[in-house]
Design brief:
Elements lengths: L28 E3 L3 E5 L7 E7 L12 E3 L3 E3 L2 E8 L10 E8 L6 E10 L7 E10 L4 E10 H7 L1 E2 L2 E10 L8 H7 L9 E11 L9 E12 L1 H7 L1 H7 L8 E3 L4 H11 L6 H18 L2 H14 L7 H10 L3 H13 L1 H7 L9 H15 L6 H10 L7 H10 L8 H10 L2
Parallel strand pairs: 1-4, 13-15
Antiparallel strand pairs: 2-3, 3-12, 4-6, 5-6, 6-7, 7-10, 8-9, 8-12, 11-12, 13-14
Helix pairs in contact: 3-4, 5-6, 6-7, 8-9, 9-11, 13-14
Amino acid sequence: MADNNDGGNNIGAAGGEGVPQQPENDPDTTYLDTEIEEVTPNKPKERKFSIKFDNFEELPSEENHDVRSSTFSCFGHTWRVHIYPGGYKDSLDGMVGVFLHRASKGQNLKTQFSFEIRDITDSKDLNIRQVTNEFAGEDDSWGIYNFIPRSELVNDFLEEGALTIYVSMQLAEFIPNNPTSSIMLKLFGDEKTADVVFEISENQKSAENESMSRKRAKKISSANFHAHRLILQHHSPELAALCATSQGMTPILINDIKSEVFRYLLYYVYGGEISEEEFKTYAKDLINAADKYGVTNLKLEAEVWYVHNAEVAVDNVIDNLLYADAMNCALLKERVMDFIVKHRKKVAERVSFENVPGHVLKDFLMAVSRRENERKDDSDEEVEEEEEDGDDLATMRIGELRKKVQEKGLEIDGSRDALIAALKEHS
């Protein structure tokens, strides 16, 4: 399902008025004690909350029946999420309505917000609607008449009977950005203020009119990149260490990286954003370069794009596994292990594991256990005991482990075992 940002079904889109609010003793209103948690937002300056409506199918489903969550606080105001399991009075037949309601008094507040629900059959499949409205006072609500068909929601979006709605909120008023990042980016390639130069020299083998035994290296291109030692000290310790070997502006020669890849590496160090297309083209090169020169976040971002774009198949599964193990790419290794577990019979018949290190067996077992957990029945007591004993860290996805490690301010570039050990040590 594609993301849906259609604002045509917003309440008040035509008349500019919010939803009239029913009194608390109204028979068409149900108040629930919902589980609410603030979670990591998708964007800077945004706040995001998860609201869990248990036993969704048992909630009143009559048309225009308002089911209200518990309250939560954001931007100095109190809020609720209202859902209409049977549709709002202006909803189309069979559609569920979802609204954000300001429950506290105060001045007008222009807010951009979105609703998100996650498809349990595919974690990448989201249903998001973005809305920008001005909340004029207490008991003002804005949202979506026709958020999603009830049948689709019940079939694809309930987990153990519960509906979890994620609400992201951001002030819609103009807020200037902190200029530090743009100032840093202006220093990228600035020859006037630079105090170090890198010369990137690429070489290739030439065999023109020569036998294979007489191949010689031929210099084909070089490029100079100006930089600042102070910036490198904080973002790339390895490049900073190379600077210590250079006097003044004498170029530091590097001949094991493509000039365009080094440019992206340095651009990232200065706060630049690398495009999706560039990651698609140079993901593996960037992983290698970022790993060598200690630009951890770039390595992990490039790894995400490599995993997203690369096709793991029987013919290349071992190559990908050995590469992931050698480069300590835990996310790629997880992807490969998932493939092996899913296609274990075909892989066993056609692939040799002769050159695979023995320590990856643990990753394989974790992949098997993770697959079993994801398909487990609620009555599987053995799995439940394992989750209680290990807090489910052993089978947790690499992305979640990295997020937890980063939240604690720890090193995020590590194997699964290293990430788990760091979390346990600082728990």
